[in-house]
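Protocol step 4 of 6: structure prediction from sequence.
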Amino acid sequence: MKIQCDKQALSEAISGVSKAVTQRSNFSALEGILFQAEHDKLTLTGYDLEIGITTQIDAQVKDEGSVVLNARLVGDMVRRLPADLVEIECGDNLYTTIKGGITEYNITGISAKEYPELPAAALPGENKADVTEALSINGQMLKEMIETTIYAVSQDDKKPAQNGEKFVLEEDKLTLVALDGFRLAICERPVKAKIPISMVIPARTLNELARLVGDSDEDVSITVSRRYVVFTVRSYLIISRLLDDAFLDYKRTLNPNHVTRVVVDVRQFCDCIERASLLITERLKNPLRITFGEQLTVRCQTDLGKVMDSIDCQFEGENMEVGFNNRYLLDALRNSGSDKVALELAGPLAPVKVLPVEGTDFLFLVMPVRFKND
């Protein structure tokens, strides 16, 4: 293999696919990026058996071929080359030269035959009988939906289905759902779907997808097979295994009734919670006591001291005091992306809804905390 290509394009491609590379593995090929040179294109692939990312850049291909190079090493080398043009040459012995200007690196590659093959769902020209194109969606809208909900994904490995987000695609809307047993986040947007589908996608895949969308306004194409989902965005293809769809029936938690409703300024409420949280530490995790009434009052007491603060709100219904984990409530407020939100309460121990004042852009649930003396 012998190619020449633009340093900036190569460096960006290496950075993009490196997110799917295993940092440490007994199988050294998984710590590398697969370089494939063919037809004036250089294809780079990172794959850790869970998520794969591949992209292509233009290159002057003098000799076609392929090699696996350590991702961290080749990324650092290319980034530090002093010239704008990079030359990579690999012989039959896998001894690889990476050259730019007067700087030349020599490293030993790994045979491409040792690199795991991507699932058939992502490979061009494969039998696509079980692969269905589900949706093409504006990248910025999908990125916003992911960023609105991803905070509520479970970190508990004992519940792997909740380590991802549920994608529910219906004829006229896409719904993303994340939950961890203490809070729930739902975001809906209108779309034109090609097929109805329900699947659970790992949070890591969605984080990488949002990162690769970046500021681009291009559409994201989504295709699905029985075990995998494939996203095509910009020049990147992302393939990910799907999680088992043993997702909690979240609709059962959405009580349509409430007895108290308040509308608050998000910035003021966040500031109030942060002031009260100064008395909460890893060791002293007492809940916030929040009283909903004509004024919204926040109290907290730990061995460090006690605090009381309040802000104005629009109130209707019954006065109520509810306990909250400060971080869970802050997460919901911050991820609303709104200047004002409505909080609906059905009782002091019932999940609290956080909603937009108008519309249905999102719905968050935050579980209350039972006071020790209750």
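Step 5 (inspection) to follow. The mean pLDDT is 92.
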